[in-house]
Design brief:
Elements: H1 6-11, E1 34-39, H2 46-53, E2 71-76, E3 81-86, H3 101-109, E4 111-119, H4 124-140, E5 149-155, H5 162-176, E6 181-183, H6 192-202
Parallel strand pairs: 1-3, 1-4, 4-5, 5-6
Antiparallel strand pairs: 2-3
This protein binds guanosine-5'-diphosphate and magnesium ion.
Magnesium ion binds next to helix 2.
């Protein structure tokens, strides 16, 4: 076998003259960040829910804008795993860019499925208004949310009497038409097992 010494190797290197080519700037965007996106006004209970369902440790607080960046968690059963993205709260005017709305709505657009969380602990009217604000922002945003499945989750039901719960379910059922409605409490666990089961079944 003929062995080259380092000097011979150097001599064998070959170069060709460079040519002028077009330059191009390319923006790449990740298509999907999670299976499920949590959507809702600040304080709706999104971070508390992701912490109750997954291994995530998203920051929780009784004041708006505790969550400033999306946080991911993984929901697992014996066969599957689903990723959930806890998103900062969407506020009125988000579709016009208020409260970093462009950024957060775009993140939500890159999930397969949306869970719209509505705090129902204050009153039926406040809950219905909160629901409409978010629905309106989705409609006004320049990206189309109509292809993503969406469920509504009424949160903090541990704070309501049975009578108030049935009233709120009545009112929401009239408004939602074919959007499924789920009642949960991340504090005492009401509805969480059913929610998990449904998510694994539908996704
Ligand atoms: N009683 C009760 N309080 C809740 C529940 N879920 C969230 N909270 C409280 O509501 C406040 C806002 O919760 P957080 O998860 O930070 O809301 P986010 O802004 O939507 O992420 C916190 O004080 C939570 O402890 C619930 O199911 N029941
Ligand atoms: Mg939060």
């Amino acid at each position: 076998m003929h062995v080259l010494n380092p000097q011979q190797i150097k001599l064998q290197k070959k170069t060709t003259k460079g040519e002028q080519f077009d330059s191009r700037e390319i923006f790449l965007e990740m298509r999907l960040i999670a299976d499920i996106g949590l959507l809702g006004l600040p304080n709706a209970g999104k971070s508390t829910l992701i912490n109750a369902l997954t291994n995530s440790k998203s920051k929780v607080g009784s004041f708006p804008f505790t969550t400033l960046i999306p946080t991911l968690g993984v929901l697992e059963n014996s066969e599957k795993s689903l990723t959930i993205a806890d998103m900062p709260g969407i506020i009125e005017g988000a579709s016009d860019g208020h409260g970093l709305g462009f950024k957060f709505l775009r993140h939500l657009h890159r999930t397969k499925f949306l869970l719209h969380l509505v705090d129902c602990s204050i009153s039926v009217d406040v809950a219905l208004d909160s629901f409409s604000i978010i629905e309106n922002e989705l409609k006004e945003f320049h990206l189309d949310f109509s292809k993503q499945k969406r469920w509504v989750c009424l949160t903090k039901v541990d704070l309501l009497t049975d009578q108030k719960i049935s009233n709120i379910v009545n009112q929401f059922s009239k408004r939602l038409k074919d959007i499924p409605l789920i009642l949960i409490s991340s504090k005492n666990g009401t509805g969480l097992e059913e929610l998990k089961k449904e998510l694994f079944k539908r996704l």
